[in-house]
Amino acid sequence: MQMDFSELLFKIDSSLTQEDLECLKFLCVDLLPNKKLVSIKSNLDLFVELEKCSLITENNNFLLAELLYIIGQHSLLKLLNTNRHSMQEALKTKGLITLYRRMLFELYENITKDDLKNIIFLLKLPNKYKENKNFLDILCYLEKQEIISKNKLDVLENVLLNVARELTRTINIYKKECQRTMLTSLPSEDEFEDLVKPSLPVQVVTTAVSSTEMEYPTDDTGMQSIGELVHEVSGQANEEDLKGGNTENYMSALSLNEQPTIEMYAMNRKHRGYCLIINNSEFMKSDRRRGTEKDEESLKSVFSWLELEVELHKELTTQQIHNCMQDFQARDHTERDCFVCCILTHGQSRAVFGTDNGIIDIENIISYFSSCKSLAGKPKLFFIQACQGKNSQKAHDIEADATASSDDKKSAPSIPNHADFLVGMSTVDGYYSFRHTQRGSWYIQTLCKNLTKMVPKGEDILSILTKVNRDVSEMEHSNDKGTKMKQMPQPAYTLRKKLVFPKPLTPYKATSQTTY
Q: Could you say which of 231, 346, 436, 477 is catalytic?
């Protein structure tokens, strides 16, 4: 026996939560008067109001299906005799929820609790918005105060640049789609409101895909992204890709003449990630690495400022280094954005030393993280301060981080045949890496200096390392015989996206000043 419309609405109401109600009310801001929305206390009340306005009827429940689709309640669509795939098709040509409102809802879906706390602080909101408020409440306040609107998003964008930079891409997608639509046609206000596209993806999923696939697949519930729509409408859709959850890059699909942009790694999870620092200074058969404590201090200070959880391990033997890597490999990194490992020790070609003078290949160290499932698709960075070749003739206050000769000039340090790795070597293979006995190493000090200067400017890690290369390459030291000695760092990477560390809320304050 088929249930009547009232029973249907009641059944849907019983399956929804209070959080769902807040989401639905936000999506209906453009459809119902504000006074009505404020008075609504249940999902059923909302449905009744929509009925009164003839926005949903027994014979036309498309808006109801659209709302359920947007908030991810796809299992309820069957009660309306439709499904997720049918809604994906239908929303290509019609819909009542504007692209602007869906863009804001997408931001809400991706804002973390920590992000929200920082946003409230930066916006200097009234006290009543500082407790027990979600991001939808903040957005409603900003709209009410006319701080944001569909054509006025600068304030929101600037705040997100500081708090969750990667989410500004959602706003940029919205802006570009509006521009594309305006260039294509000049719709009336009513027509503009009907230019509704399927929602932006609920979360960033960093699975490895080909260069022609968008690296923002549909979420686990299958919600279609704007990228899919543009891709399909332009006649370039690949049905197999859609079935697999992969889509074309929306940014390149906006215009045939527009060059593809490089995506950014998501940096908005609960924690930024671990930063492991291994600092070896005392060796069984080698000289003490004087000045390495300065590098340790700088790395701890800078990566803590970048909001990573720093763990320091000192004076590790070769086996202890293996054990340490196994420990971090086994940890759950699910709620973390990235992993950083800094190794300060003696070395030789493509290898570093434990305090027992045992040798461990660099490739072996980083390969531990190729099979770490909770770090899959996330950036894994290794910075290694160690010589990769012969010792130099010692000069006053300058030492080389080498303990063995290497006559062979081998290739760049190899990394596992997997994506999302970066290995920053203090020197090219076969050459010296210099460390001042009081100021620390050329490479680590220059790396830390440029991180503190360039991260606040929104520079990505490869741009920062390029600047490090230049700065270190311009340094020189003359030994007692007047021979000038130089150093050239070398990064190797398989990163698939831009890695941009979010700008910290406070300026960097160095514990001490180092100048080369």
A: 346
Catalytic annotation present for 333? no
407 within domain boundaries? yes
Give 128-174 pLDDT, tens digit per residue. 777 767 899 999 989 999 999 999 999 999 999 998 888 898 898 88
HEC profile of 283-337: CCCCCCCCCHHHHHHHHHHHHHHCCCEEEEEECCCHHHHHHHHHHHHHCCCCCEE
Strand order in the sheet with 421-425: 309-314, 271-279, 336-344, 380-385, 421-425, 490-493
Window from 14-23, 44-53, 142-151, 197-206 with minimum mean pLDDT: 197-206
Provide the residue range defining the domain that includes 40. 1-95
The catalytically annotated residue of 23, 324, 387, 448 is: 387
Known catalytic residue: 346? yes
In 3D space, the residue among 311, 309, 313 whose CA is nearest the CA of residue 335 turns out to be 309
CA distance 489 to 472: 7
- Tell me the CA end-to-end span of the chain in Å, nearest whole number: 83
Look at the chain and report how many structural domains it folds into.
Answer: 2
CA 342, CA 101: separation in Å to the nearest integer? Answer: 44
Asked if 387 and 427 count as a contact pair (C-beta separation under 8 A), the reply is yes
